Amino acid sequence: MDLGQVFTDNAVADFMASLLSVRPSARILDPCFGKGVFIDACLRRGYKNITGCEIDPALYSYVEKKYPGIDLICGDFLKADPALRYDAVIMNPPYIRQEKIDDLKPLGITKSSVSKDPVFGGLPGAANMYMYFIVKALSLLEQGGEMVAIFPVSWQNAKSGREFEKLMRSLGDVERHIRISGKIFETAEMVEVVILKMRRSDSPGGLRENIEYARLAGGRVTVSHSVPDEGGLDMPVEFSIYADIRRGLTTGCNGIFINPPVPESDTVPIISGPKCVTGYSTENAAKDRLLKITGSASEETTAYLTSCAESIKDQKRPRTLYDKIAAGKKWYELQPPDGAGIIFSYFVRSGMKFIMNASGDAVRDNFYIIYPKIDRLLMFALLNNYYTYYQLERCGKRHGAGLLKLQRYDLEQLCFPDISGFKEDDKKTLIKLSKKMISTGKNMSEEITGAISGYAPWSFERISGAYKNLRKSRLEEGGYGAESR
Ligand SMILES: C[S@@+](CC[C@H](N)C(=O)[O-])C[C@H]1O[C@@H](n2cnc3c(N)ncnc32)[C@H](O)[C@@H]1O
């Protein structure tokens, strides 16, 4: 049974306990203490009045033996008496996807049982278990009480997250919003993780918090810098209405398939990575050659394939190719996805860049390929502007050194203004700007942003400031300093 058991690093727990500003005698709750890392951290900081809850009897007994004097409960936190009150909560709630919540039935937890509790009334059906924990924990705080919690930022990317965020913010103010990277948990590295410090309030003031960035390294957490968070952009059209998306070709062994020593007729051009492209078109890109036999292979190619197959069989690697050979399949036949679309490198270094792959050449899996369902030049404009760049800066994962990694999912979460409401003249302007960007390689994203701003929820000034701030902070984090756009 998946109880969402992911244990927090000691240094992170210490850092989180240091964010508490309650008095030493305050009543502190850890609603799911696991192996007790927050109990340890709170005791080290001199807090004595600690209550802990944990559903797993084995973990409960382990911690109970360690701290016989502490008020520990073995049970389901979601069923905690709603009349209880605490001065502070510190926690790492279980991350359990909604489809798996019903698996907890033997423990008396099902989606329908939790949704009966009025405190969860504002949560969507697709809520993850950590959302229930956060709402419940906030509801048990005294007015002015504090919650310090660590959890994945996945809510910021999912639709269900909007309702969760609304409910969470209706229960208190966010005082600290810290995105933390490094090996935060004992087990696998998690997706992006945030530490929130919230203060319970019946009338939250809607503080606009700064997002701070912290890193766990060498057993210490260091907060590097902060950027004002302008929040999410709300635009009416979802990505899937205007486009489809795929990842470029994964060869399974670039050494064999890319630039093979065979006649050119047994290859096709392929664009390997963003460095091969200058400007916003693949027209003049430096292309590699991909092994692709369309008719019958030349003698040279056949000899090459035989020697490659021998070495794969000897080394039993790469596994996928070995398995294909063992199954008697044509292991060298690859099916690159149609490259004719707008391509985007999933690693962003300085600026964002959606590139028109006019030639339709194959692209490697360093790119996503976006297939517009609307006019492709209009789509190109909807992608190459600050409204889109901002959304991606906000949801991408920072990898240090100024690098931002975007998942396919991040792109699928993009939203756009509704082009059916655009004046014909504005559409023409956008198409003209796209054409100019593609043919000259000049960055026209600022001009496109200006042309779209009349149809977007934020003014040109606001989106420019918000996007440039985020980008600047990412690049400064990497020690690059901010360049022009
Ligand atoms: C993400 S782990 C965190 C453990 C610990 N606080 C830490 O950070 O190392 C979540 C814990 O919640 C416990 N848990 C899951 N569902 C629970 C529930 N309904 N009530 C109480 N504890 C629960 C799990 O057994 C697990 O130990």
E-strand count: 21
| Shape estimate | globular
CATH evolutionary superfamily of the largest domain: Vaccinia Virus protein VP39
- What is the domain total for the residues? 2
Rounded to the nearest angstrom, the distance between the terminal CA atoms is 49 Å
CATH architecture of the largest domain: 3-Layer(aba) Sandwich
Instruction: Identify every distinct bound molecule in the structure, by name, code or SMILES.
Output: S-adenosylmethionine
Q: Any idea what the radius of gyration is?
A: 26 Å
Strand % is 15-25%
Please work out how many helical segments DSSP would assign.
Answer: 17
The low-confidence runs, each spanning 5 or more residues with pLDDT under 50, are 480-485
What name does CATH use for the topology of the largest domain? Rossmann fold
The major beta sheet can be summarized as:
9 strands, mixed
Overall mean pLDDT score? 91
Please give a structural write-up.
With 485 residues, the chain is of the alpha/beta class. It has two domains: 10-228, Vaccinia Virus protein VP39 (Rossmann fold), CATH 3.40.50.150; 237-260 and 337-477, no CATH class. The protein is built from 17 helices and 21 strands. The protein has helices spanning 10-18, 37-44, 57-66, 98-101, 111-115, 129-139, 159-170, 239-242, 254-257, 299-315, 319-326, 376-383, 386-395, 408-412, 424-440, 445-453, 460-477, and strands at residues 28-30, 50-54, 71-74, 86-91, 141-152, 172-181, 193-200, 210-217, 220-228, 237-238, 243-247, 267-271, 288-291, 342-345, 347-348, 354-356, 362-363, 367-372, 397-398, 404-405, 415-416. The strands form five sheets. Strands 3-2-1-4-5-7-6-8-9 form a nine-stranded mixed beta sheet, sandwiched between helices. It has a four-stranded antiparallel beta sheet with strand order 11-18-14-16. Helix 2 (37-44) links the parallel strand 1 and strand 2 (50-54). Helix 1 crosses helix 2 (37-44), helix 12 (376-383) crosses helix 15 and helix 15 (424-440) packs antiparallel against helix 16. The radius of gyration is 26 Å and the shape is globular. Residues 480-485 have low confidence and may be disordered. It binds S-adenosylmethionine (SAM). The site of S-adenosylmethionine has 23 residues, from helix 2 and strand 2.
